[in-house]
User: What shape does this take?
Amino acid sequence: MTLILAVNAGSSSLKVSLFQRISHDPAVPRLLLTSSTSSISSPPSKFSFTVINTPGLDWCSAGHKETSEPDILDHESAFRHFLDKLAQFGAAQHTGGAQHAKDEVKVNLNPSEIRNICHRVVHGGQYVDPVVINEQMYHHIEKLSDLAPLHNGAALRVIHAAIKVLPCARSIAFFDTAFHKHLPAHVAAYAIDQDVAKRRGLRKYGFHGLSYAFITREVARYLRKDPSTLNIIALHIGSGASACAIRGGKSIDTSMGLTPLSGLPGSTRAGDIDPSLIFHYTSRDVPPEGEKDEEGTRIMSHKDGVAREVHVSEAERILNTQMGWKALTGTTDFGEIVRKAFPSSANEPQNNQYTLAFNLLLDRILHFVGAYHLVLRGDVHALVFAGGVGERSSVVRSKVGEAIECLGYVSVDKAANEGVESAEGAVMDIGVKRSEHGSKRMLVCRTDEQKEMARGCAIMEEYW
Ligand SMILES: Nc1ncnc2c1ncn2[C@@H]1O[C@H](COP(=O)(O)OP(=O)(O)O)[C@@H](O)[C@H]1O
Ligand SMILES: CC(=O)OP(=O)(O)O
Ligand SMILES: [Mg+2]
Assistant: This one.
């Protein structure tokens, strides 16, 4: 039996799933258990460990509960915590008195059975195919950390822990950037000196690619289309948020760029800003004309030097961790923002900062949906919502839906939209059933980057 562990180090979470490779059907690895540590960037972290009802596995003993874990402060401690839970659960499988049907083969969860560990690595640079991580690849990912400061470093620390704790398993990197390898040259290029751009690799790479690859396959299956004929606009809105125009199953434009900072706002990232904003954001506050600042210096104008020197690493820290809806509202939890922007009780005052954060995200989403509708020349089969916010916020979906009906998208069905969380399957239709023929669909996809990696790993097993 071959076990595949798939690890997804997101900016605010660590999601880990364990799969079993099925030799006669490697494209569909069997999910055994899944775990999530969320709110890593705003502790206390929340940890969950869910065992799937699988023949040969005493899944009942694990149950499903979410616990608050103040000791998990980063991705590495989240990963080690997961491994401890896995070892405990695996050991209990051996000693437990679970009853199994006679012909059931007991699933052995001994960590030594884990043959492959897939790691989501957000920035792969020029690499597009998954690669087994050796020393050279480790340093390549490390060098790209400046271009994905919330992600590559965290993934490397998890990779390091995985190699230490499970030395017999192969660690394989799967890159988020890979799905965008077909971006047309004029989309990928910035309007800068192309000699410098080529020398330094300064171009749009795009991210959330494992999620978009999963969405493309699952939505194509749902719409009974070949993926190579599928045209969709996909929105992955989580702690990091992006949009992608997909034509013929391939990414032809996406909102993130050289780094995961550009495009839509996220929990701690502003999304698109005027590039010079950062210099002014970090400058000293200018007192009203004629007044003196706290040091008693009269400030005449910007030319007098209110801009202070900001080290690039300080600018990077601010851009990645001090902006976005956390800066607007004080919380990274978009669910809380929605609740406070749309209070259920009429007595509850509507709080402007939450409304501002909500409307700002909505506005930016509409800008990209409108643009990508044109990029696809209106030939769009569906708009697809995914990611923590996209999958869980019916309010975000209904507001986007209302605004884009004018482009020929089917109206959002209230009951279907609000029932998404309890619906089965990877793809849910939230459009009204009596949709006119030819109208564009509104879908939600429960995206699964871990499954996307496990599938790739299982298919390619013989080639590693
Ligand atoms: N019910 C909800 N409504 C709106 N947003 C939610 C809800 N539940 C979680 N979220 C948001 O989802 C985000 C996490 O998204 P996710 O895609 O899982 O994270 P990551 O980007 O770390 O992979 C959090 O920032 C949280 O605010
Ligand atoms: C690329 C990116 O921002 O990923 P995540 O949303 O998982 O943080
Ligand atoms: Mg994510």
